[in-house]
């Protein structure tokens, strides 16, 4: 059974006085809930209490003080959800949430609506964020709001509109440019970019992070463990003759470093020199930028290897389902964003087309149409 009461407030002189507003106390799943009725009239407060008790008794959706739930509570619930379910990479989610936290921290969750999403997008654009990046962050916000709705701490879901995204980046390496950049990198990084160029692997999370146990030179395979990739799917690829030779030489250099340091090195890409010798290599942005500049193609990204690998697989006639297994694209829609056509491809297509059109010298032998 529920009850009505009034809170007592302490006066400056130390005495206490009752507030005029009635409060109610009732139970949901055995737990007490206290809520202001917002009225100083006893009969209205009683009706309020009966309505709450009726909702609890019939199992109707019930939101105690939903208007007081803050963004911070919902954000913590989303982080806990990601940790428990593993449906999203925690590091990537934390990066998205960092930007959302700065803008929405302290806000009442029920007050967040479409206008706030637009204001957030404008603020992020002012800091140079791309529309695609903002859309990924708004998707996290939308998931947070939906989770709050499912947990009964949000009454209704607002509609968050996505921004128009820029076309996919059309960066890829022609063979000559790739080779020019590669030969200007240290020997171990030459191996890293060859793996990325061949299979479209992500450089930081899927190539540089490789362990030696993931390479089987006898079987001629390279394995990415489940959970180590962006979509958490494992992958197995067979090594090309070039890569098998490069990997064999690289593993011998790692073993020589082990003997010099006197300890086992489980990683495939350690630092070979300097104070960090024997520690895992995490990045090589500076070496990459220097090599690209020296090769005459500044501004190229290591992520362009994904576009390049997809295009090369398409050119080679590899079935799309097999190509997606190699590059790690789970959906064809995302894969197609990388299947970019270059000017050289278009020119080659035109040359092939000319050979099939009547009325051209290269065509069926006709010299022209009168």
Q: What layout of secondary structure does this protein have?
A:
Blueprint: E1 3-10, E2 16-28, E3 31-36, H1 42-57, H2 71-85, H3 90-104, H4 114-126, H5 131-150, H6 175-182, H7 187-199, H8 203-207, E4 215-216, E5 221-224, E6 235-238, H9 241-261, H10 285-294, H11 304-315, H12 320-327, H13 332-338, H14 343-354
Antiparallel strand pairs: 1-2, 2-3, 4-5, 5-6
Distance from first to last alpha carbon: 99 Å
The assembly state of the depicted protein chains is single chain
Adjacency order of strands in the biggest sheet: 1-2-3
The total tally of domains equals: 3
The CATH topology of the largest domain is given as hpI Integrase, Chain A
CATH-level-4 superfamily name of the largest domain: Intergrase catalytic core
Number of helices: 14
Helix content: 40-55%
* Largest β sheet strand count, sense and barrel closure: 3 strands, antiparallel
Strand content: 5-15%
Shape: elongated
What structural category do the secondary elements indicate? Answer: mainly alpha
The value of Rg in angstroms is: 31 Å
Give the CATH level 1 class of the largest domain: Mainly Alpha
Mean pLDDT: 84
CATH architecture group name of the largest domain: Orthogonal Bundle
> How many beta-strand segments?
6
H and E order? EEEHHHHHHHHEEEHHHHHH
Q: Extract low-pLDDT stretches.
A: 360-370
